[in-house]
Amino acid sequence: MSSKAIWKPPKAIRGGISVCFPQFGNLGSLERHGFARNKLWSLDNDPSPLPPTNNQSSVDLILKSTEEDLKTWPRSFELRLRITLSASKLSLIARVRNTDNKPFSFTFALRNYLSVSDISEVRVEGLETLDYLDNLMHRERFTEQADAITFDGEVDRVYLSTPSKIAIIDHEKKRTFVMRKDGMPDAAMWNPWDRKAKALPDMGDEDYKSMLCVDSASVETPVVLKPFEEWKGYQELSTVSSSYCSGQLDPRRVLYGFQ
């Protein structure tokens, strides 16, 4: 969570997990990352076809299109989110239903603000050799050359056709975030670094050192829904404590399992 996060609507809160819908970034005519993250949601009393959780550590939320939304994005929708919390694991099921009488398309992301000890000591495993769009280079397409992604400056990328499991390894905290996802083929990554952090009114000058955004996303190919069709995306964030013999965690053990 940013030390200068603004908690008043209609500003997005810089931190937590932002729901980017119906537009990721500035890939369209709407405000950056769409309007869903700026809205007040309601409790969803009928989350079918998902079974009821009957679980105190879960909540079902719903966001429906309003008259105001229809002026800027004239498509009728229902956006549902099930959030489930258990020991060292946070799961989200996002669903979008087309309640309009014509098809529509959208891009989507769950923007995860991850707390890290020191960004210069963090590495991300699972995205090596993949293509990515670099937003700092006018969305030019590159191929990742590094064995693992490390950070020494601003990063703003969308990795394409990513695996279902990505590991964010924090050497100093001896902790690894494992992100599993389904239905969201892309993964965005963002850290503003020092100069941009100073320019953001809702971010502390030093906040960039202790955060990293790694997002589950469906960006490169927009999702298309016919009337009354539903799309579903799943994300699970868990933590694994990592012990280091050689100063590094073997990333293959994180990505492919501890035998």
TrEMBL record:
GO terms for biological process: carbohydrate metabolic process. GO terms for molecular function: carbohydrate binding; glucose-6-phosphate 1-epimerase activity. PANTHER family: APOSPORY-ASSOCIATED PROTEIN C-RELATED (PTHR11122), GLUCOSE-6-PHOSPHATE 1-EPIMERASE (PTHR11122:SF33). Keywords: Isomerase. InterPro entries: Aldose_1/G6P_1-epimerase, G6P_1-epimerase, Gal_mutarotase_sf_dom, GH-type_carb-bd. It catalyses: alpha-D-glucose 6-phosphate = beta-D-glucose 6-phosphate. It is an enzyme of class 5 (isomerase). This is glucose-6-phosphate 1-epimerase. Its EC number is 5.1.3.15. Belongs to the glucose-6-phosphate 1-epimerase family. The keyword Cell membrane does not apply. GO terms for cellular component: cytoplasm. It holds the Pfam family Aldose_epim. It comes from Dovyalis caffra. Gene3D superfamilies: 2.70.98.10.
